[in-house]
Amino acid sequence: MNIAEGELFSGALMKEVKSRFHYVDHDMNGRERLFFDNAGGSFRLKAAVDQFARIDALPDCPERIHELAVFLQQVQARGTEDLRTILNARGGSVYASLTASGGMFDMVRAVAENVRGTNMVTTVLEHPSSFDAMSLYAERTGKELRVAKSNPATGGIDVEEIVGLVDENTSLLSVIYASNISGAKLDIHEIVKQARAIKPDLYVVVDAVQHAPHGLIDLQRTPVDGINIAPYKFFGCRGSGMSWLSERASVLPHHKLAGKKKDFWDLGSAAPWQFAVVTEIVNYVCWLGSRFVASDNRRTLFASGIQRIELHERALLARMLDGSEGIAGLRRMQGVRVFLDHEDLTKRDLILAIGIEHLEHAQAVREYEKRGVIVYERVASSLYSKRMLHSFGLEGAVRVSPLHCNSAADIDRFLKVTREISEEFGRVRAGLA
Asked: Phi and psi for 235 in degrees, rounded to 5?
């Protein structure tokens, strides 16, 4: 196995993986297509969608004593533990919200309003849900907001750039696990380790929404105070955000009903389907992991599954960049530019930012769709990408984000379509068409 370039699933396993998801090869109307916009969501597990419908159809309130109410309590308890399985978290509090963004705002507020300090630290690559939360509560609490700059060569943020902004008066550090523009992974372990060497009791929150479906998270190795994921970007369903808070963060003053325990964060009636979907996500990843290791331990199986997802996706990324026999990769394709193309693929999730000569990015997206490929433009006019793109010196890019459900054949098809678009518009620009 070449860890640096990953390892593809076998043909048989690839077939099984695809069979467990909706609409991997065709859209809802039966038309063949490649959906390479998983950074904006993800393919849905059939089991997750089925459980969502099954559990949400029950009229029963889980805060009762009858049989189905107790069943729903068990569903929530399993889902709560399964979020801990994903994160390798012990103790603390699990918080289900409508969105991961809402969870992030709540976590930032609790720390900003209740932990002493004169400054808060974040990065230029944060999703607006964390960057804007940090900006809002830094202003409201009179704290300085310090923003770490990006590295255009790697597409990420250097450890020393972030740690250099932390001092004994920093009340909160908020960092994203991986960029949703470049796919670059931040070295969260070193960032947390070095930052807490400066201030041992520093509060840290992490946005893991983009990274969680692509790589292993281990809060035993890298303890933080708050972290969130979005099930709809992790093979699950929309309308749900899941967060975890450390024991000390969970008891900070926050919005809650007065009669609830100090570490309770949910507001209003629970939606048990949210927890059922988390369990189905973990069931699937554990099933995948069981193909490679024999264990009765759920975290061991989950870790194996995520690591195999990471290896398969790295192999897909290598194929997209460097091609294969008879098919040129994006790096060598005339008329195509790969932005933020860091060579070390172990430091990247399966996200690419590219540009095609002579094509405005939104137009390129439409040309892909005409050919049965769904990608997305990230442009400076968007509140979701302006800050990040400008930090890289870019005005826009076409974002390409497959998932582990995709095969090598899918990547080859994408490369052929990209070459076709590039050649066609190259001829048009040259006046040869």
From this structure: 70, 5
What is the distance between the alpha carbons of residues 183 and 155, in angstroms, rounded to a whole number? 8
Predicted pLDDT at 428: 65
Where are the alpha helices (H) located in 199-351, listed in sequence order?
247-250, 272-290, 298-322
pLDDT given for residue 127 in this prediction: 97
Q: What is the predicted pLDDT for the residue at 429? A: 62
Neighbour count for residue 253 (Cβ, 10 Å): 10
Q: What end-to-end distance do the CA atoms of the chain give, in Å? A: 45
Taking 3-state DSSP, the helix, strand and coil percentages for the chain, each rounded to the nearest 5, stand at: 45, 20, 40
- Residue ranges of domains in the chain, CATH in brackets: 3-45+298-430 (3.90.1150.10), 49-283 (3.40.640.10)
Distance CA 350, CA 328 (A): 18
User: No. of H helices and E strands in the chain?
Assistant: 13, 15
pLDDT of residue 213: 98
**Quick check: 221 and 78 in contact, CB under 8 A?**
no
pLDDT at 3: 85
Is residue 103 a contact partner of residue 255, using CB atoms and an 8 Å limit? no
Residue 136 C-alpha from the chain's centroid:
23
pTM of the model: 0.96
Instruction: List CB contacts of 133: < 8 A, sequence separation 6 or more.
Output: 104, 105, 108, 109, 174
Non-local (6+) Cβ contacts of 210 within 8 A are: 39, 127, 176, 177, 178, 179, 180, 233, 349, 351
pLDDT at position 326, please?
A: 87
Tokens 């988390």 belong to residue: 278
Collapsing DSSP to helix, strand or coil, 175 comes out as: strand
Give me the residues paired with residue 379 across strands: 396
Q: Which residues of the chain have pLDDT under 50?
A: 433
Phi and psi angles of residue 203, each rounded to the nearest 5 degrees, phi first? -85, 135
